Every structure is written in C-alpha cells, then in structure tokens.
C-alpha cells in the first residue's frame, strides 16, 4: 500500500485539497487534524411511530367556537 500526504483545509464542513490534487472517487483517505479540538454537534432524532398505521390517532381536529367571540358593531 502506498501512502501520500496532502495539506488541505476545511471549508463549509468539508475537507478541501489544493486544486492540482486529484483523487479517484471512493478513494480511502485518512484525516489527521493537528492541534484542533473537534466540536461534537448533538444530533436529536425525530420521533418515529413504532406502528405508522397508528398515525391516524394523532390527527388534529379543529373545532370553531364563536360563543365567546367579541361583537363589533
């Protein structure tokens, strides 16, 4: 196995290499980040129903009640 080293930078969360460096698609790479503390971004998953067919139990029903409405005359 041959190993090559390139210096790049991170832009918009992606590693950018110099324009004259071409790596083939799906190339295996290793990233070493010297003297930088990576920030862990919390990820909160969206809740999912165990049984999606139960979604009908959570449908909203709108009931309009005008009995307490103010009258404008």
Describe this structure as you would to a colleague:
With 73 residues, the protein is largely without helices or strands. The chain is 0% helix and 8% strand. It has no helices and 2 strands. It has a two-stranded antiparallel sheet with strand order 1-2. Strand 1 and strand 2 (14-16) form a beta hairpin.
Distance between the termini: 86 Å
Q: What structural class results from the helix and strand content? A: little secondary structure
Question: Which strand order does the major sheet show?
Answer: 1-2
Low-confidence stretches: none
Continuous helix count: 0
Principal-axis shape: elongated
β-strand amount: 5-15%
Fraction in helix: under 10%
Q: Would you tell me the overall average pLDDT?
A: 84
Q: Taking Cα atoms only, what radius of gyration do you get, to the nearest Å?
A: 28 Å
What is the succession of H and E elements? EE
Number of strands: 2
Largest sheet: 2 strands, antiparallel
Can you summarize this structure?
This protein is mostly loops and 73 residues long. The chain contains no helices and 2 strands. It is 0% helix and 8% strand.
Give a quick set of tags describing it.
little secondary structure, two-stranded antiparallel ribbon, 2 strands, 8% strand, single chain, 73 residues
